[in-house]
Design brief:
This protein has about 400 residues and is α/β, with parallel strands linked by helices. The protein has 12 helices and 13 strands. It has a 7-stranded mixed sheet, sandwiched between helices. A 4-stranded antiparallel sheet has the order 10-11-13-12. A two-stranded antiparallel sheet has the order 8-9. Helix 3 (about 80-90) runs parallel beside helix 9 (about 285-295), helix 4 (about 110-115) runs parallel beside helix 5 (about 135-140) and helix 10 packs parallel to helix 12 (about 385-399). The protein is globular, with a radius of gyration of 21 Å.
């Protein structure tokens, strides 16, 4: 008999979004014809921006002609997209990156799960609780049994405190998924300083940075002095340009990042990540990268900003509707998510079933994001304006 990776035994039986999908499918089977408004999954509802659509059509045309055919591309991404990210995303923030410090991927989730390949198995991990499950789940699969959870609750404004014991790898996600919390530059500097003092590495998930509207909230961890020495930043075009079905993202691994092998030899993390990608990743598609490039054009930035504003309005309206009937809610500002306290002492899953059964509205149980998420549910602003308004009205009447 083949021996399996025992670490899978330590994972939850099902991924939270899979579990929600199964419950929704069960409800639909038992209640045929009933309209359900999906407010659980963070998937987009608006069409791709015109600039990206035009560019991807042209990219497909390129593939029909021998003289413009694009086969295997560079595993790290085409230089023209990497240069555009450095120029259009980071330079306006006063951050200078070379193209070879930026690696194009097929979305943030894969990189967030795969970055653990860079580090020794006995490195311990610190992660927010609640938070996007990939950080903890991937660490468990990799065999990192020492995972330090950093509770984020209403008492600390959903801002994690520094770990009491030293952490090697620190996952931070801001704007946070699911709590929608953000950090000021001074708050983020605390983490950068900690990592510099302790020789730690921060893996910073900035997938929702485009939703930040509050002055003084940094769009990138690299706005903090010294972050280049201790931080890897992961971003995505999924929620910015609507690329959930296209798949394209990027990870920044600065050349300043260094580490040591067990024999004491110093190594370059950027070079190791480049080597890893060449071995295990064949690159994002030419078509998706052309679309991503167009989304960074002047026209593309204007169009994607309008879509981000659309989802932010939805989230803000959801929060306002809940607060109007006395429900405690967070987010809807700087984030497309609304983090909702369940009524009374109701559990996350009990609230999920109540909303589904009585309002025909879905949510994501907060317990699926970690122990500290119990007693909350997450609602998303990614549905259409019309269905979001209908969901808000149903919730207002029910709660």
């Amino acid at each position: 008999m083949i021996k399996l990776n025992d670490n899978f035994e330590h994972l939850p039986q099902r991924y939270i979004f899979t579990e929600v999908g199964l419950e929704v499918a069960r409800f639909k089977k038992e209640n045929p014809g009933v309209e359900i408004i999906r407010m659980d999954v963070g998937d987009v509802s608006q069409p791709l921006c015109e600039a990206a659509v035009k560019a991807m059509h042209e990219a497909i045309d390129d593939l029909t002609r021998r003289e413009t055919l694009a086969g295997y591309g560079p595993e790290e991404g085409y230089k023209w997209l990497r240069e555009a990210i450095a120029l259009k995303v980071y330079a306006p923030l006063g951050i200078d990156f070379r193209a070879d410090e930026i690696f194009i991927s097929d979305g943030a989730a894969a990189d967030l799960g795969n970055l653990g390949n860079l580090f020794a198995q006995n490195c311990n991990v610190a992660a927010q609780d609640p938070v996007y499950p990939v950080y903890v789940d991937a660490s468990i699969i990799d065999g990192r049994n020492k995972i330090i959870l950093l509770p984020c609750t209403a008492k600390n404004n959903f801002v994690p405190e520094l770990p009491e014991e030293r952490a090697d790898i620190i996952y931070l996600c801001f704007p946070n998924n699911p709590t929608a919390s953000v950090l000021t530059k001074d708050q983020l500097k605390v983490w950068v300083d900690y990592a510099r003092e302790n020789g730690s590495i921060i893996i910073y998930d900035g997938a929702y940075e485009a939703y930040i509207r509050t002055p003084g909230v940094p769009r990138s961890i690299y706005e903090v002095e010294g972050a280049r020495e201790v931080a890897i930043e992961v971003r995505s075009f999924s929620k910015v340009a609507g690329f959930t079905g296209v798949r394209c993202g990027y990870t920044v691994v600065p050349s300043d990042l260094k580490g040591y092998y067990s024999d004491g030899e110093r190594a370059d993390l950027r070079a190791n990540w480049d080597r890893r990608q060449h071995t295990k990743f064949n690159g994002a598609s030419y078509i998706s990268q052309r679309g991503a490039l167009a989304s960074l054009s002047e026209e593309g930035i204007r169009q994607t900003r309008a879509q981000v504003d659309y989802y932010l309005r939805n989230a803000g309206n959801l929060r306002a509707a809940l607060e109007s009937v006395g429900i405690e809610a967070f987010g809807g500002v700087d984030s497309p998510y609304v983090w909702v306290k369940t009524p009374g002492d109701m559990s996350s899953w009990d609230c999920f079933h109540m909303l589904l059964d009585k309002a025909r509205v879905t949510c994501t149980p907060g317990s699926g994001f970690g122990k500290a998420g119990e007693g909350y549910v997450r609602l998303t602003g990614f549905n259409t304006e019309e269905l979001t308004a209908l969901a808000a009205e149903r919730l207002r009447k029910l709660l």
